[in-house]
Amino acid sequence: KAGVTQTPRYLIKTRGQQVTLSCSPISGHRSVSWYQQTPGQGLQFLFEYFSETQRNKGNFPGRFSGRQFSNSRSEMNVSTLELGDSALYLCASSLASGTTDTQYFGPGTRLTVL
Amino acid sequence: AQSVSQHNHHVILSEAASLELGCNYSYGGTVNLFWYVQYPGQHLQLLLKYFSGDPLVKGIKGFEAEFIKSKFSFNLRKPSVQWSDTAEYFCAVNSNFGNEKLTFGTGTRLTIIP
């Protein structure tokens, strides 16, 4: 079974631009979560989607948004990029059958904001 | 709000040494506990998880962790480490009631010297 895939793997943007990251979950997984990983803050939860609905959201500004499609694929968007948005963005998928589910992580998208 | 503390930021051991990485969490309710590992250049992957039953859980690659409810701890152990265990280790928690959002510790970087 293929793992979680994320595209693109690397991105370089400039301040003020916007960016869209994509995540394809493991086949059959219905929940997709997004995390931001930085050296200073570690891994922080952004949001989670299930059945095209955002179920939970972390403490990030409204510039960070996401959506999920009917095939469970998910995208996240960051508008008006700031230098501090440089990070590794990780997507994780799970069956969503309960909180004891294992979340399987993708390789991440490395975003650099100049 | 949930929080997770990993007090060891960087641990350096020689091969065959025993390992114990500390993890303490703060949450008033019932939790599920996870240890994830990130090998250099690889995805985050699950080492082990605890959600109920025997507080001593065994994971992949010879790792185990013990849940001590009275101490709010979930320390990771391995009796004899190998060079291939060099990686970053993350403790994570989610609530047993509600959604799957994972709260991660800041991670412990483990370096094994051959």
Identify the notable features of this structure and list them briefly.
heterodimer, A: 114 residues, seven-stranded mixed beta sheet, four-stranded antiparallel beta sheet, 11 strands, globular, B: 114 residues
Question: CA-to-CA gap between the ends of chain A?
Answer: 37 Å
Task: Count up the helices of chain B.
Answer: 0
Number-wise, the strands of chain B total: 12
As a percent range, the share of helical residues of chain B equals under 10%
Mean pLDDT rating of chain A: 93
Report what the structure shows:
The complex is a heterodimer of chains A (114) and B (114). Chain A has 114 residues and is mostly beta strands. Chain A has no helices and eleven strands. In chain A, strands 2, 4, 5, 6, 9, 10 and 11 form a seven-stranded mixed sheet that branches. In chain A, strands 1-3-8-7 form a four-stranded antiparallel sheet, with no helix packed on it. Chain A is globular, with a radius of gyration of 13 Å. Chain B is 0% helix and 53% strand. Chain B contains no helices and twelve strands. In chain B, strands 2, 5, 6, 10, 11 and 12 form a six-stranded mixed sheet that branches. Chain B has a four-stranded antiparallel sheet with strand order 3-9-8-7, with no helix packed on it. A two-stranded antiparallel ribbon of chain B has the order 1-4. The model of chain B has no long low-confidence stretch (mean pLDDT 93). The chains are: A mainly beta (114), B mainly beta (114). The A-B interface holds A 3-4, 31, 33, 35, 42-45, 48, 55-56, 58, 90, 92, 94, 96, 99-108 and B 32, 34, 36, 42-46, 49, 51, 90, 92, 94-107.
List the helices and strands and how they pair.
The complex is a heterodimer of chains A (114) and B (114).
Chain A: E1 5-7, E2 10-13, E3 19-24, E4 31-38, E5 42-50, E6 53-57, E7 64-68, E8 74-78, E9 87-94, E10 104-105, E11 109-113
Parallel strand pairs in A: 2-11
Antiparallel strand pairs in A: 1-3, 3-8, 4-5, 4-9, 5-6, 7-8, 9-10, 9-11
Chain B: E1 3-5, E2 10-14, E3 19-21, E4 24-26, E5 31-38, E6 44-50, E7 56-58, E8 64-68, E9 73-78, E10 87-95, E11 103-104, E12 108-113
Parallel strand pairs in B: 2-12
Antiparallel strand pairs in B: 1-4, 3-9, 5-6, 5-10, 7-8, 8-9, 10-11, 10-12
